[in-house]
Amino acid sequence: MEFSKLSSPSLKDLFVREIENMILSGKLSVGDKLPPERELSERMSVSRTVVNSGLAELARIGFIEIQPRIGAFVADFHRKGTIETLNAILKYKGGILTNSEMKSLLEIRMVMENLAIDLATPLLTEERMDQLKILLNNFTAARGASESAECIFRFHHELCILSENSLLPVVFYSFRELSAGMWERYFSLHGKEDLLENTRELYTHLRNRDREAALETFQLSLKKTIEGVVSIYH
Asked: pTM of the predicted model, to two decimals?
């Protein structure tokens, strides 16, 4: 059996993490100008190369904006951030979403899966329905919140793939860890029977190529969670 080699974070990674934490903790505010690279190098006891590459990484993630010949400024990451920005925020918070963030993620999922169901339904062949049936059976047989969350994610991700929109499954998968975590919380609080029954109903409508009924089933179920009728909020 082979084991992966362990490695310590590089100085660049530590530099990036430190600046991220200063921004997310409020020590650095949007619009603040960072000290020049030479000063950062001296104050943080790292090389100019580490500072330069670290600032480039922070700009790529969306935490800072570099203005040539002027300097580096803290960016409004809520406007210019990416999935990587969100992941950094979650690491800072210990992976815990606020109620507002959970609601926002559910609303994004509503938009994505409405599109997936709308596009996929007229394209569903018997072979494609068989694949969904396998995923539904896996969900049915799943034990525990973590396994159930993984199975239900795969079912809904497959719907995005079957939509034949080339970007939709990629965008949906980028939220995998967040979505799986929320489903796991749902199953821990409420069990899986209600959501399993809802998924079976959704599958039946898809098998019948009834797009309107499939959309209605999905929307009613997710709306209950968004509105807190079946709550996963803290």
From this structure: 0.80
